[in-house]
Amino acid sequence: MKTAESDATIYRLTEYSHGAGCGCKISPKVLKDILSESFSYPDGNLIVGNSDSDDAAVYDLQNGNALISTTDFFTPIVDDAFAFGKIAAANAISDIYAMGGTPLLSVAILGWPEKIPSSEAKKVMAGAREICAQAKISMAGGHSIESVEPFFGLAVNGLVALENLKRNNTAKAGDLIFITQPVGIGILATAQKRKVIADEDVPILMSELSKLNSIGERVGKIKEASAMTDITGFGLAGHLLEIAEGSGLSAVLDYAKIPVYERARHYLKDKVMPDATYRNWNNLDKKIEIAPTVDFMEAFGLLPDPQTNGGLMIAIAPEGEDKLIELFRQNGLGDFVHPIGRFTEKQEKTILVQ
Q: pTM score > 0.85 for this model?
């Protein structure tokens, strides 16, 4: 695409892919079928493997610590190549933080079509290096292929003390539910992809998508925090479902307390939402109940909205609530000090929204 002001070609990366960010994930139902048979070699030191639906693999190093290993990559969620690199890197590193760990090392995963010049791929790599520097890790290598659509991500290794390890299937009845970022970023990203986003909303989108979830490392040290995950492609409700089902519990959400990007509500009224929202809902519809007092259509658009590099979801015992709130306030998360729900003993429906 050439601008009127110059002959320079502007490459809008979202025009080269059918999906966007974590919205291009395989649907939960299909993924469950793919992973229905375990293919891990039996190893007593493997604490978390592919039989779990957790954020990363975890390997006991037999010295009080564990290695966390993860990989995450996707197609462009924004047009700008440098921003895409930042977002993809932050999203991949988030899996380490979501387990309560410290990132140590990353390697890059790049797929690039011939029709986009290599100079744009260099911008992607530069953006990723900037985020890795913020996380105080190196991007130490990687692998690239020629592909029909561009994609980028990282494989990341991290370290965690075993006593600080947080999983997504260890919540307890009575635990409070906190999140660290508003929901609705998938709607904003879709507005950009469809070229209906307002100019003033673009900086918000770029900034929110590239934030590091480094608070997770410190949450890991709060013993009352019983479970944690990051909210990505399956949306708030989808990842809450994973925690609840994995822990043998149900969850009650207070819809009015869920932080939402207000501009997401604006676009939602114009029926702007990712295609993956419908796919995510199909995995939820028989397991979720929405009270008549809740705006169903809005909840349908927001709760399964696929988040790219979304915030963390934390389950914590009530006696640890004050510790978490103080940590939030010390780290600029004062807007998220109110729990959005709680876990209960298993009910007929896994999620109740009221």
A: yes
